[in-house]
From TrEMBL:
UniProt topology in membrane: Multi-pass membrane protein
EC number(s) from the headed UniProt entry: 2.4.1.-
Stretches the record annotates as Disordered: 1-26
A Pfam family reported for this protein in Swiss-Prot or TrEMBL: PMT
Chain ranges passing through the membrane: 77-96, 173-190, 197-218, 224-243, 287-304, 324-346, 452-469, 476-493, 499-522, 534-554
Protein name: Polyprenol-phosphate-mannose--protein mannosyltransferase
Domain ArnT-like N-terminal stretches: 86-300
Bias (Polar residues): 1-13
Upper classification of the organism: Bacteria, Bacillati, Actinomycetota, Actinomycetes, Kitasatosporales
Record flagged with keyword Isomerase: no
GO cellular component, one term: endomembrane system
GO MF assignments: dolichyl-phosphate-mannose-protein mannosyltransferase activity
Superkingdom of this protein's organism: Bacteria
Length: 577
């Protein structure tokens, strides 16, 4: 940490927690020193509470022929310069030919039109059966009526899509614009989050670079669906909680030797509550992540108090921190969720908007599928009772959605990319849409991750599990928490119709896990040059293979016209067809 608060905290704590004089080495340690072993310097409590950012070296820039002054400036700006450069590359890729395919692909047929309806009425209206053709026609017509329609997802993601339509109109570029913006910004956030998590700009940029070349995140950044919006807000919440963790530990270090001190105002935790509310107000799976992150932050506080020397850290954290954590996250998220329905509240024509008006103040008859006794609830605003009823209907829809779909998949297969989703497919003949192959061509947008990245991430998760269980590495635990919160809840709904692209929500944490494993392959700073050289060869080779894999599948991510034989060669597994 480089802030003044952290520096003052370290100085204060060092006065109260000076390291003990070095003990005499044991015979075994003296024997090891003959082979180059060196004892680790003993850290103070403050240093254990606040891991500093290592001072980056300038040797690389000097080797490139830059002077000391220029090298120092580049190093000083690399914390933001590196992430911004990675995000620039990500943005150029995601905005390239964004309007292609010039079609309403997969579930864009719901969300692009619902977003436009929200702009017009504040709620989702009704479209005619052939609305897609009318929207894409050379002389566009918009066959939208104000009659309310029943929709099964909250409005935030559709409002985000609607911003692009407000700027550029109801067309493929317009409805994909904001998703591409969020996909690019999520890369920037991941670089900065990785930098803070690992205390390494290089590893942070590596994590963001890996997500830049992941096929699933790339496709989802170019398609007007909701799941990437959920991922963006979840990642923002995780980043806010990381900042809150650092600042809280700095305050605790400044209060030493008092290990029971309050941690003061925590605005970043409140910000995380807002972000998690926005995630849940996009799709309900954000709720599971809210609960997981709440537990994670309480455990972080307990860990900080243990490091500070508290005799009963978990008891102290529960008494001093857990209640405030709950208030900063859960009520804030609920308030944010309700505010997201403002357009529905302000109108009288939204679906089920006046349901409570005909109930004489009686409560809804069930919630989340559980029957409830009918009681008088006139003290609850009618609009909230109507929303309660509407949301109960939506819950029943989600848990009972078992209609077979060609591209549905079981969550057991997601990490190995067992069954991707085809968003768009055409078979141009010779001379059509740029086809130059006599045997015909294929044109597809396939929602699939970069295979080598995902398959490598499976091993990275095992490494993170090892780090968390056997090395008690909190960073590995945080990464695993993000993966588990976005992934494991789907195993409760294996009978439901679900798809691989839901996994984009926990993809950033897979990239963090893989960056962590690659950092271990590279080796620690104090390793010998030979060890670091071979580590760099191994890690660099894997990264280059992942980049090559992304380039190889690029035609399938962007709907480019390629010979049918080339398309078939990319179907590595029969389940991808």
């Amino acid at each position: 940490m480089t802030s003044d608060t952290a520096t003052q905290a370290q100085a204060h704590a060092q006065r109260n927690d000076a390291p003990a004089p070095e003990a005499e080495p044991t015979p075994w340690q003296r024997r090891l020193r003959r082979f180059g072993y060196a004892d680790r310097p003993r850290a103070t409590t403050a240093e254990r509470l606040i891991a500093p950012f290592p001072e980056p070296g300038t040797r690389l820039w000097a080797a490139l022929g830059l002077g000391p002054g220029t090298a120092d400036r580049l190093v000083r700006w690399s914390g933001w310069g590196g992430p911004l450069l990675v995000a620039l590359v990500a943005g150029l890729l995601r905005f390239w030919n964004l309007k292609s395919p010039n079609a309403v692909i997969f579930d864009e047929t719901y969300y692009a039109k619902d977003a436009w309806s929200l702009l017009q009425y504040g709620y989702e209206g009704t479209w005619t059966d052939k609305a897609n053709n009318a929207i894409l026609a050379p002389h566009q017509t918009i066959p939208l009526s104000s009659d309310p329609s029943y929709v099964v997802h909250p409005p935030v993601g559709k409002w985000m899509i609607g911003i692009g339509e407000w700027l550029f109109g109801l067309n493929p570029f317009g409805w994909r614009f904001m998703v591409a913006v969020l996909g690019t910004l999520s890369v920037l956030m991941l670089c900065r989050i990785g930098r803070r998590l690992f205390r390494s700009t290089a590893l942070g940029c590596l994590a963001g670079g890996l997500m830049t070349v992941d096929g699933l995140q790339f496709v989802m950044s170019r398609t007007a669906l909701l799941d990437l919006v959920v991922m963006f807000w979840v990642l923002a919440a995780f980043g806010a909680l990381l900042i809150d963790r650092d600042k809280a530990r700095a305050r605790l270090a400044a209060a030493l030797p008092d290990t029971h001190a309050g941690l003061g105002a925590r605005p970043w935790r409140i910000a995380a509550g807002v972000f998690l509310g926005l995630a849940t107000a996009t799709k309900w799976n954000g709720l599971y992540i809210l609960l997981a992150f709440l537990v994670m932050t309480v455990l972080w506080d307990a860990g900080a108090r243990r490091t500070a020397g508290a005799r009963h850290p978990h008891r102290t954290a529960l008494r001093k921190d857990a209640g405030w954590s709950f208030l900063a996250l859960v009520p804030v998220a609920i308030a944010t969720y309700l505010l997201s329905w403002t357009g529905w509240f302000l109108t009288k024509k939204g679906y089920d908007r006046d349901w409570a008006a005909h109930r004489q103040g009686l409560s809804p008859d069930h919630i989340l599928g559980i029957p409830l006794p009918q009681i008088n609830m006139t003290w609850v605003p009618a609009a909230l009772r109507s929303l309660w009823h509407y949301e109960s209907q939506v819950y029943d829809f989600h848990v009972n959605l078992v209609s077979p779909h060609t591209y549905q998949s079981n969550p057991w297969s997601w990490l190995v990319l067992g069954r991707p989703v085809s968003y768009f497919y055409e078979s141009p003949k010779l001379g059509q849409n740029g086809c130059t192959a006599a045997a015909g061509c294929a044109r597809e947008v396939l929602g699939i991750g970069t295979p080598l990245l995902w398959w490598s991430a499976c091993f990275a998760l095992l490494y993170a599990l090892y780090r968390w269980i056997f090395r008690r590495d909190w960073r590995a635990g945080a990464i695993l928490c993000g993966v588990a919160a976005g992934y494991l809840p789907w195993f409760m709904y294996q009978q439901r119709t679900i798809f691989l692209f839901y996994a984009v929500v926990f993809l950033p944490f897979l990239c963090l896990a893989l960056a962590m494993m690659l950092g271990a392959i590279l080796g620690p700073r104090q390793a010998t040059e030979r060890r670091r050289m071979w580590g760099a060869v191994g890690a660099g080779t894997l990264v280059l293979l992942i980049v090559w894999n992304f380039i190889y599948f690029f035609p399938l991510y962007t709907g480019m016209t390629i010979p049918y034989s080339s398309w078939r060669a990319r179907m590595w597994l029969d389940t991808w067809i």
